Amino acid sequence: AVVSTQSTGIESRYLMVIAWIIGVTATILNLLSLIITTKQLYSEKSIIKVLNQSMVSLVALGDLFVGIYLIQISYLDIKFRAEPLTFCKTRYEEWLTGSWCAALGVLSTFGAQLSLYAMTVLSVFRIYSVTSKSLRGSPSLKMEGMLVATALVLVGLSLLISILPLTTSLEDFFVNGLVYPGNPMLTGPLDKPQHVKVLQAHYGYFKNTDVLSWSLIRRLVQGMFTSFNGPINNKRIHFYGNSGVCLFKYFVTPADPQRAFVWFMIGQNALCFFIITFSYLAIAVVVQRSSERSSGGKSGGNNSAKPSKKNVAMNRKIALMIGTDFITWVPFIIICSLHYSGIMDATSWYSLFSIVFLPLNSAINPILYDTAGLWEMTGEMCKKTRRTVNSCPTVNKTSTSLGCIESASDMDCTSARKSTSTRRSTTGV
Prior knowledge:
Order of helices and strands: HHHHHHEHHEHHHHHH
Strand order of the largest sheet: 1-2
């Protein structure tokens, strides 16, 4: 089939609710994370923090685009549900061939790839900073230039991947089919095999149907009609028009011309997942060994000491990072493989994976990678709105490994508690 389903986009109302929840959550959290992280970036003096904040900003930017995509597709789904018959009969093909669907596909693909690339670079940088002592002090002009170049490469590569399937010169690799608006003889979306059947019925036997290009098909279709009929209008069902949700076409078959590109992307994303997993597992091992050596030296060689709260919190965070990446990509890759091999038809699952599994990280990443800014905002609001010293929140240092950085306001509250305790002991209260 040319397209996966003729629906209004999100078949289930439950999926629509989930799409709204994930979309709004991802948009709000990533927008706050992006604003706060960018603000912190200009005041950072440590090269490690500058590199870390830069990559976190790119992660938030990519996830923000994914959140915006979910909100847009959810809004359009509600709009289309208000006119289901009109949409399915007359506007569905217009939607699949339109620029709005293509723009949503570019937006979601660009955001997902940018976030994944930035998370991969960030994980490599973090394992390097743990195992090497070369990244110390303030960033040099050369280092800042390399950082800007890396960010531009990630943005450019993500943009290239998202726009490449829409290139007109590559339509034979990415176009899913053609539609002929207003033509009663050529109804519905027609892919190449369906075109071949129509052309064979009119012209007779074709010796080599595999070399038929879309431009040749257009000319042959035009030749089926007399000049009295005028030019036969047609529209391309572009790469993102394979389904109503306008996403990257991951579910391909051996007959799809874009299968090589799709599997290249699946393999690349799987490689990024393994790099992220390996990097954070290596970080956990390095930190654990360092902690054991430190505790062994302090306790006279007793290495049986319990792990510190900081290490436990860090291991919990690493487990969450790896777990969410696993849930996002591994089941999806397995389903893509089963669909491609013909073991199962996963077409009906497309909306589930596009709405729930793939965007899952976009809503969780702000919590895993950049809760520091959100905690600082909470601390500042508490400091300004509450007058009592004991009502200020205390941020435990062990929570810094979960992204909670001890802010200046919290330090002020701690100092205030100490001074209050001193006054009480002096006055005998």
